[in-house]
Amino acid sequence: QSVLTQPPSVSAAPGQKVTISCSGSSSNIGNNFVSWYQQLPGTAPKLLLYDNNKRPSGIPDRFSGSKSGTSATLGITGLQTGDEADYYCGTWDSSLSTEGVFGGGTKLTVL
Amino acid sequence: EVQLVQSGAEVKKPGESLRISCKASGYSFATYWIGWVRQMPGKGLEWMGIIYPGDSDTRYSPSFQGQVTISADKSIRTAYLQWSSLKASDSAMYYCARTIRDRPSDGFDVWGQGTTVTVSS
Lengths: 111, 121
Hints:
The complex is a heterodimer of chains A (111) and B (121). Chain A is mainly β and 111 residues long. Chain A has strands spanning 9-12, 18-23, 35-39, 46-49, 63-68, 71-76, 85-93, 99-102, 106-110. Chain B has no helices and eleven strands.
């Protein structure tokens, strides 16, 4: 199983808001920045947020991020059918073996 | 435009060797880390390892240490992921990705299109 824990799936209606959680520990989320990625079906992952809450150029402000302690949250407002995708959190783990880690992914369904 | 272009799909037999590539353009190749990420069919993303082309400093996930080799050639702006003896369980999509800044702990802002590796007898 993944070092970072995400819910397997979330769903909401178009126009609504959804949040996706990412839970870790002091060796990863607790002491490192979190990034969020969106993977549309059949495509490569795309960076949505980095440094916990910063949006790369071109990412709408409907996407937001936050971090508290050893957990991070991705928020998406004004849901659109085009947001239906898999979402992954990622960070660095500074335990015995330093490495990057991803959450298991969350499938967002826009009903 | 910053871009990572990966080599094409591969079909191999168990025990064969393989090297796939990731060619960078549009930025200073030597000053950003390049990582490799595995995605098995229907599964999530797995961080495999990362290399700094400037000095070839390489870090591996314990899960992949000894199973693959990551390398880079600055002169042709290309990173590689290679196997010496493939197994059926290596069948997956493999992505290369560039870090946002010059730290291995940074997230990945640019991704290659992915290379599908199929290992079957």
